[in-house]
What we know:
By secondary structure, the protein is α+β, with helices and mostly antiparallel strands. About 45% of the residues lie in helices and about 10% in strands. The chain contains 15 helices and 10 strands. The termini are far apart.
Amino acid sequence: MTAPxxxxxxxxxxxxxxxxxxxxRLAPELTALQSRCPVxxxxxxxxxxxxxxxxxxxxxxxxxxxxxxxxxxAEAGRPIQDAPILAPELxxxxxxxxxxxLREEVLMALGRHQPDLPTDWVAEITRxxxxxxxxxxxxxxLQRHFAEWVAAQCLSRLLGLPFEDHRWLAERADVDxxxxxxxxxxxxxxxxxxRTYMHEHMAARHGGRPRGLADRLADLNDRQHGLTDRQLSNxxxxxxxxxxxxxxxxxxxxxxxLLRRPDVVDEVRARPETMPRCVEELLRCSVVLGNAIPRFVxxxxxxxxxxxxxxxxVLLSLDAVNFDPAAFADPDVFDPARSPxxxxxxxxxxxxxxxxxxxxRQSDTAFRVLLDHxxxxxxxxxxxxxxxxxxxxxxxxxxxxxxx
Length: 404
């Protein structure tokens, strides 16, 4: 396909992406594009144009093909979809950690045998959050006392941060991942507060007595000098912001998806050993991405029926691709026994999220505790009345009212 052919493709530049930041259902525009124009031209929050991909097969291709890169998006003059990139390491932290010889420490902290978040502890703090909700009375807020509580506890302990600082940190993480609302200067000031906090936290550590992953990375970096202090504090801040926001988003949206299906709740409660597969289906069908996964075209290429040119921005809607009927039978049906379930929630191949195992494991524990500790838990309002934060990169309910 030649560049002139591009002008004859079905264009959608009049569409502004993202279409919605509500997590109760997939935006209907995504479903429509998936069926008639799975590589569509859209306008982004930055005012530029991008190619939006809603096809499962083509998303796998983009994540696999080195013609579509991520790290170069942090370079000056590259296209952006939302907020400006304040430093290169903020967009591709794992690449910078690898070059500095620190990546293995992060992978170990997030992996199957990670040392910081034992299952018994996750269960204990989940019960504590639910008990706080019970004390405040019905209706309670599952977003605050379950999703955000568990996510903040886990990320604080993982990084070795004092939990009493979690509200201050969460407020700034919320600002950082809010699209459109804040100016570039406001976002820069907000980020500098988070980065400075992480820098001061690591500077106050005692050698040989790490409080968590942040201190271990700082000790290693002192020996290897792979990153500047500013780069390291930026990366540790990214680990908290992305880890907290993504996990709190998923736990909230997934809890809503579970509780809106009382029959599934009853089945999983009766057979708790089926929870891991239920979590996989929650990962597939939970709408949690307020924006998309960006990639930069490094050489002219064909992408489905589209011709993409070097310099173009490609956006991957992982929410949409997990509902692609070409990859999933009856994708709109919630099937906790779905097998296989090759969802792309955590990416694919070399771009697979290193925190995938951690999210699966902690989610399994948290949902088991929720159903066991509150056997009568149910939504207190219709699903359509659940309020949502607007313009969030990680979709977040403002509250999930429940009774028990």
